[in-house]
């Protein structure tokens, strides 16, 4: 571990720290009136791995109003202790207000590692925490490990191309902060017999720099792609919004939702919240149907946890066929309407097998 001299060379304006004073792995969780975010519970999986390698323990951190009720949930999923700041002053979320509460706790308890799920809030809050604590942050990690010699945490993520992996360290500063996107790590097994300590804390809420003008809850008509069991995903090959209407029809018949590649998002055919991949979302459906998607590494990164991947592509050389479980080399404008027709008939008859048998006979 680097000493005081190295630290001063790094930045004379930042006070030197003694890394040996920092202990424990934190998961800063997100909770509101809808409960604790599943992505925060997923972060307990890498937290436990790091803690075991460091011979340390795992602490959950909950900041908000009416959030104490979720502390036990974090313990059941693997936290040894949960620090809770439950205060009406935190009823409205603001990144600097919540982030500052975590900063105050971190200054008091000195955790060695802080992990945050890269949800919308996590993406705002984690850099605020890192910057205020004058430490490093690695966003969108796909794995974490510990350097056996130095005991620094290795924050692992694909650099821009996703072809190799970068192993990033924060050797001179503490805490070491990393985020990971939802669904990159599995939910740890829930153990109802686990018990742990719940520590109630008070912090001084800072004045928010944003003012709430209006709060509007936008009703979701369908499940978000990260929770969908069936996804029909379209790429550049779909050719336009009209094509996406076909995909939508198929997705509905299969009880699923539509998603897309970055090129489809960039073309404005589908909103960004439905983008799958390295700069989109990671999904874990039972069935992923990729339509007019070439299968670039950055796209396939988001499909790692999918059960069955089926590809429809006009080009037999498309890289997606190397990774898909099933492939159809054809124009999707022929395949998808045929699938829709089959499924509609199956609905009428109540059996897909019967319709397929009749189709074979004709
Ligand atoms: C840092 C970085 C991050 C990125 N993050 C993401 C990300 O999160 N998600 C993502 O998706 N991409 C991402 N990309 C972009 C990625 O590299 C690819 O450019 C993108 O995934 C390609 O999208 P596509 O497959 O829709 O289009 P294309 O690569 O253009 O493929 C279109 C496919 O459609 C097929 N096709 C054409 N017409 C038909 C038809 N009628 N029927 C059937 N098939 C047809 C073609 O044969 C072709 O294979 C990222 C890139 C970088 C550099």
Structural account:
This protein has 362 residues and is α/β, with parallel strands linked by helices. The chain has two domains: 12-200, Rossmann fold (3-Layer(aba) Sandwich), CATH 3.40.50; 225-361, TPP-binding domain (Rossmann fold), CATH 3.40.50. It is built from twelve helices and 17 strands. The protein has helices at 4-10, 38-42, 44-54, 71-76, 95-109, 120-132, 241-253, 262-266, 297-300, 320-323, 332-349, 352-361; strands at residues 25-29, 31-32, 35-36, 58-64, 81-86, 113-117, 137-138, 143-146, 153-157, 166-168, 176-180, 197-200, 230-234, 257-260, 287-291, 308-313, 326-329. Strands 7-11-6-1-4-5-12 form a seven-stranded parallel β-sheet. Helix 9 (297-300) links the parallel strand 15 (287-291) and strand 16 (308-313). Helix 5 packs across helix 6, helix 7 (241-253) packs parallel to helix 11 and helix 11 (332-349) packs across helix 12. The termini are far apart. The chain binds flavin-adenine dinucleotide (FAD). Residues 160, 235-237, 261-264, 275-280, 292-294, 296, 298-299, 312-315, 318, 331-333 line the site of flavin-adenine dinucleotide.
Summarize the structure.
It contains twelve helices and 17 strands. The chain has helices at residues 4-10, 38-42, 44-54, 71-76, 95-109, 120-132, 241-253, 262-266, 297-300, 320-323, 332-349, 352-361; strands at residues 25-29, 31-32, 35-36, 58-64, 81-86, 113-117, 137-138, 143-146, 153-157, 166-168, 176-180, 197-200, 230-234, 257-260, 287-291, 308-313, 326-329. The strands form four sheets. A seven-stranded parallel sheet has the order 7-11-6-1-4-5-12. A five-stranded parallel sheet has the order 14-13-15-16-17.
